[in-house]
């Protein structure tokens, strides 16, 4: 067996290693993404900083503790800037995938806890590419459609009859995602679903989700849009891990 030469060993050890991703890299990516969609984001963030610092200084001088309020105002300004950037980045991420087949499913994928979400659509109209996604949570079964309102209602009704046969007496909510009258815009879809009132226990949610697995899904890819949550700092990166 041939031995590696010293130069080969040194060459392999000198190979460039992937740099650790810090939390500020995520913020920079979020800022660049948002600026592509909203060029005014720089002035919005500057405005937030100036407004907060101005109020803090006025209160500080009136209170007699300007340095204390300057420090407090700086922390508050940075926190509010991060919140505004996260909100604007989320909107920018949605705008990139809006109009693509599966955009509603990609948006619902941002929900982290408390829901069992079917990644693939459960109903598809191959001619019009109208879709229906299914999710199970404390409110019950939620069917989310994607497409014009005059076309998707039939898909929703058909899917509601299917789930009713498998999981009777479980509340079923029909949500139309879109920009037509009476529909929920993509950017507000997650908030709309999360506001539904809980009816089931966590154990009942798991049982219903297991029953619905027998219905399967329609295999269709979901657009891999930019994750709006990337605007949040990476805590592991902050610790240098």
Which secondary structure elements does this structure contain, and how are they paired or packed?
Layout: H1 6-13, H2 23-37, H3 41-63, H4 66-97, H5 103-108, E1 115-117, E2 123-125, E3 130-137, E4 140-146, H6 149-166, E5 172-177, H7 189-194, H8 202-212, H9 235-238
Parallel strand pairs: 4-5
Antiparallel strand pairs: 1-3, 2-3, 3-4
Helical amount: 40-55%
N-to-C CA distance:
38 Å
Amount of beta strand: 5-15%
Total number of helices: 9
Overall shape: it is: elongated
For the biggest sheet, the summary is:
5 strands, mixed
Query: How much is the average pLDDT?
Result: 80
User: Which structural class fits the helix and strand makeup?
Assistant: alpha+beta
Low-confidence stretches: 9-15, 226-241
Architecture overview:
- With 241 residues, this protein is an alpha+beta fold.
- Helices cover 51% and strands 11% of the residues.
- It contains 9 helices and 5 strands; from the N terminus they run αααααββββαβααα.
- It has helices spanning 6-13, 23-37, 41-63, 66-97, 103-108, 149-166, 189-194, 202-212, 235-238; strands spanning 115-117, 123-125, 130-137, 140-146, 172-177.
- Strands 1, 2, 3, 4 and 5 form a 5-stranded mixed beta sheet that branches.
- α6 links the parallel β4 (140-146) and β5 (172-177).
- Mean pLDDT is 80; it is low at 9-15 and 226-241.
Summarize the structure.
The protein is α+β, with helices and mostly antiparallel strands.
Keywords:
alpha+beta; 5-stranded mixed sheet; disordered C terminus
